[in-house]
Design a protein that fits this description.
The complex is a heterodimer of chains A (about 700) and B (about 170). Chain A has helices at about 5-40, 40-55, 70-80, 110-130, 135-155, 160-175, 190-215, 220-230, 235, 245-260, 270-285, 290-310, 315-340, 395-400, 405-425, 425-435, 435-445, 445-450, 455-460, 465-485, 490-500, 510-520, 525-540, 555-565, 570-575, 580-605, 610-635, 640-665, 675-690; strands at about 60, 85, 100, 105, 670. In chain A, helix 26 packs across helix 28 (about 640-665). Helices cover about 70% and strands about 0% of the residues of chain A. The N and C termini of chain A lie far apart (about 75 Å). Chain A has about 700 residues and is an all-alpha fold. In chain B, about 40% of the residues are buried. Chain B has a 7-stranded mixed sheet with strand order 6-5-9-10-2-3-8, with no helix packed on it. Chain B has a 3-stranded antiparallel sheet with strand order 1-4-7, with no helix packed on it. By secondary structure, chain B is mainly beta. Chain B has 2 domains: about 1-40, no CATH class; about 50-165, Immunoglobulin-like (Sandwich), CATH 2.60.40. Classes of the chains: A mainly alpha (about 700), B mainly beta (about 170).
């Protein structure tokens, strides 16, 4: 080749490289923009990445709850190009819970979740084809850590964070390369479902952050987002491929869009109708995952949205309605292809292996039962589904509610039955919400079964602060009323008005009432509260169950509680001003508490069920202390540091519970991060040798 | 000084990313000869051993007597698993019963000590199991035996088992 030709060739290569670099640069910029659009800002990004880093520690390549077999086999089927399950890639057979039998074919359920996991499945299959998957996942974790450190470094304007993060990422990656075993063949469907669940969980924290940032401050948002991401059962269910984290992400996203569409506290550049269409689209799409919960989401949303929208012109309603109907199309088509009936979701169809799920709109979801391995977390169907009526007229009313026409029963009867059942047996609120041990011992003899059921407070002691919220708000209101009576002259009504900080308001009575109500509770709050009540009513008749494991059916209630605590009363502001105290207390609780707990287990030769009982007890004690401290400190106005520390301890207790569960107690497959595998193997081996 | 730190941090981060990507790609078939994984013998949990399972006695019939409170008293013929050989250490044996009509899925796990040969192990199942209400009668169930070996739950055998559900007063 002549020198001139060489130069020309060199120039072409240089241009080619430059062009490729340009394409990569543009793609990266677009990805960055998309990421920022989703997470809001760098703080949201750090929250998202940090949560993923934590969840991956408990990520195991396996199935812990038997109805996940149906989902995984369903994903294999959809990847093969059809809805019916043709081959059993996971589990002992076709007749596992969650599988349905129609016209000689087996079908899974939650097809929306399956389809959402499909791109991740393809991604993992692609990675598996060009890399060793175990190494690739370890690499992704380290890259995630570098990205996390980079984001933090930009936020704090301290590049040392980036350097430190890069070093740790490198060391962990190289350590992970120390003889990792390969991921067993054919696990990609399960890994994809798990990845989707983890992404949804991390996104839930981000949405909480964005929601609270809109209505309060960035620090309050950060606090709420972090608590939701790692100190509630959202973290517990992150690496377990069920629908719960997806449900939480959708509920919070709808609440966020509702908040933006109302311009609560902060203006939004988006057209309110577009935002409203967005939230109905989410609800419509969620019917494809779990129709009963989607309905429970739709009912309060429709009422509150229409009642509080700035405008409800025919155009607005047409756009919103069209978006909702369009989002229902995948659900309707899927149902039609399966059973010929577009409104009959798979979970309403006969269960595989006999038995009909026809009578169970909500109860269909109780077929998710315990793990197939390990005796520590058994599962079962509803253990206390009777009404337990102690009031004479309630039982006939329950029977009457249950005998309503099927369609009305499906739509409203379930809520009515929830009310009546709760009225008949209010004690179940205590057993589900506060202390579970007694009830579960009674209904499920056998220590191994007892271990798997936690009440809500036992699962997340932060709920102690949420329980204190009504008390705090009431005391605050009474205090203001007393003050106003002391210093003002006039009727009690005028005193009340002055205590609310409002003079005689202009406008009609309806407008004044509307303003007064909106002063107490925003449309977003009203929606979240109404949804919480309805969801509880759906599931309370069948709770507590043996395998409820953090009362998983009510998982959305945890982030909603955190949101309300951070938004209302003084607690959110108090904690936001003492974020360091909260963080240090949480870290100390995890770093000292978890090893101390394990040492205690060994010292006392505690079996796994006894250890779970002890953990539940710790949750109740910490939650109760937090309740008392919240009431005292926020009303008296002293001891804020102590309260912040206690919130940190509560958060650390919940995180410790999650870590102990996923790293020590539940073992259903290899940990995807080899370093974690080695650590957990060692801990478990030592524990078993010392307690057996 | 700060600029030097900044440069070093960026360089370190880029170097880490490049190394991670390079090693990840090298672990796959593209570069061929580099293998980062191996089938190692581990102290996996309590089940480092490998087992060869022989005959399995599934229960020939199972009776579930409703006991109220959403649970059933379990009775059935003995369940036995014969291990022809266990090498390397203990293994973790799981026996499970699925009764879809009752939404019942219960498994029990036990450690079988190894190494050993020709050992028959009785499985101790629960006395009570939780389940949804069902009309008394005969139902189909699936019983299965699985083993955890190196962290993987391997299904060894499954069998259809008739289950008779009674109301508890029969």
């Amino acid at each position: 080749m002549a020198p001139t030709e060489e130069r020309v060739e060199g120039t072409r290569v240089t241009r080619g490289v430059a062009r490729a670099a340009g394409v990569v640069g543009k793609a990266r910029t677009r990805l960055d923009r998309l990421f920022l659009w989703l997470v809001g800002d760098r703080t949201g990004g750090a929250l998202f990445l940090g949560a993923l880093l934590v969840y991956a520690l408990g990520w195991q390549a396996g199935i812990v709850i038997v109805d996940t077999y149906a989902l995984a086999n369903g994903l294999v089927a959809v990847a093969d190009g059809h809805l019916f399950v043709e081959r059993v890639a996971f589990g002992p057979g076709f007749d596992t819970p969650g599988m349905h039998y129609v016209d000689g074919r087996f079908y899974a359920r939650n097809y929306g979740q399956i389809v959402a996991a499909l791109p991740l499945y393809w991604l993992l299959e692609g990675l598996d084809a060009v890399t060793e998957l175990r190494v690739a996942i370890a690499g992704l974790w380290s890259l995630c850590l570098v990205a996390f450190a980079s984001t933090l470094a930009r936020i704090r304007e301290d590049r040392r964070i980036l350097a430190g993060g890069a070093v740790v990422a490198l060391v962990v990656f190289l350590t992970n390369l120390w003889a990792p075993t390969p991921v067993p063949d054919g696990k990609s469907p399960v890994l994809a479902l798990q990845s989707l669940s983890m992404l949804a969980a991390a996104f839930s924290g981000v949405v909480t952050y964005r929601l609270l940032y809109r209505v309060r401050t960035r620090r309050v948002g950060l606090l709420g987002g972090a608590l939701v991401a790692v100190a509630t059962p959202v973290a517990y269910w992150a690496a377990i491929p069920k629908r719960h984290t997806l449900t939480v992400a959708v509920v919070l996203s709808v609440a966020y869009l509702l908040s933006r569409s109302r311009s609560e506290d902060r203006a939004t550049p988006y057209d309110p109708t577009t935002l409203r269409a967005g939230m109905y689209t989410l609800v419509g799409l969620f019917t494809w995952v779990h129709a009963p919960v989607a309905l429970t989401l739709f009912l309060p949303l429709a009422v509150i949205d229409v009642a509080t929208a700035q405008t409800n012109t025919p155009r607005d309603l047409a756009v919103v309605g069209a978006a909702f109907l369009a989002a229902l199309v995948p659900f309707l088509i899927t149902n039609y292809l399966i059973s010929g009936n577009p409104v009959a979701a798979p979970r309403l169809l006969p269960n595989a292996g006999g038995g009909s799920a026809d009578a169970a709109v909500p109860a269909g979801s109780f077929t998710d039962t315990g793990p197939t391995t390990g005796g520590g977390a058994g599962g079962g169907a509803s253990g206390a589904s009777g009404t337990g009526s102690g009031i004479p007229f309630v039982a006939p009313l329950v029977a009457a509610a249950a005998s309503l026409t099927p369609m009305v029963d499906r739509v409203f009867g379930v809520y009515v039955q929830g009310v009546l059942t709760t009225v008949a047996d209010p004690g179940r609120l205590y057993r589900v919400g506060l202390v579970s041990v007694g009830e579960v011992s009674r209904t499920a003899p056998g220590s191994a079964e007892r271990a798997s059921s936690f009440s809500m407070l036992e699962s997340s002691p932060l709920l102690g602060a949420a329980l204190a919220l009504p008390v705090v708000l009431a005391l605050t209101r009474v205090g203001k009323l007393v003050d106003s009576r002391r210093f003002s002259v006039g009727t009690s009504l005028e005193s009340w008005q002055s205590s609310s900080g409002t003079a005689r308001e202009p406008g009609s009575t309806v407008q004044r009432v509307r303003r007064r109500v909106s002063g107490l509770c925003s449309p977003t709050d009203a929606f979240l509260l109404a949804f919480s009540v309805l969801l509880a009513l759906v599931y309370l008749p069948a709770l507590p169950t043996h395998g409820q494991m953090t009362v998983r059916y009510l998982t959305p209630l945890y982030p909603i509680a955190v949101y309300l605590v951070c938004k209302h009363g003084r607690l959110g502001t108090v904690l936001a001003s003492r974020l360091r105290t909260v963080a240090y207390a949480a870290e100390a609780t995890v770093l000292l508490g978890v090893p101390a707990f394990l040492a205690g287990m060994m010292w006392l030769s505690l079996t796994e069920p006894s250890a779970f009982d002890a953990l539940a007890g710790v949750g109740v004690v910490v939650g109760t202390a937090l309740f008392a401290a919240t009431v005292l400190v926020t009303t008296v106005g002293r001891g804020e540091g102590l309260l912040a520390g206690l919130v940190g301890v509560a958060a650390g207790t919940a995180t410790g519970f999650v870590l102990l569960s996923h790293l020590v107690f539940f073992h259903y497959g290899i940990h995807l991060l080899p370093v974690v595998q080695v650590v957990t193997e060692t801990v478990r081996t030592v524990l078993v040798r010392m307690t057996v | 000084m700060v600029r030097a730190m900044t440069d070093r941090a960026g360089l370190l981060a880029r170097g880490t990313v490049a190394l991670v990507l390079l090693v990840t790609v090298a672990s796959g078939p593209i570069l061929g000869s580099v293998s980062f994984t191996e089938q190692r013998v581990t102290a996996m949990d309590v089940a480092p051993g490998n087992a060869t399972v022989g005959e399995i006695d599934f229960p020939t019939n199972v009776t579930l007597a409703a006991d109220g409170d959403g649970r059933y008293r379990y009775s059935g013929t003995p369940i036995r698993v014969t291990f022809e050989r266990i090498t390397g250490g203990d293994v973790q044996l799981t026996y499970g019963l699925l009764v879809p009509a009752l939404n019942l899925s219960r498994s029990v796990t036990q450690i079988v000590s190894g190494p050993t040969t020709g050992e028959t192990v009785p499985v101790e199942y629960y006395s009570y199991v939780p389940g949804e209400r069902a009309t008394p009668g005969e139902y189909e169930a699936t019983a299965y035996v699985s083993l955890v070996e190196e962290g993987e739950n391997v299904l060894v055998a499954r069998q259809s088992v008739p289950v008779e559900v009674t109301n508890g007063t029969d």
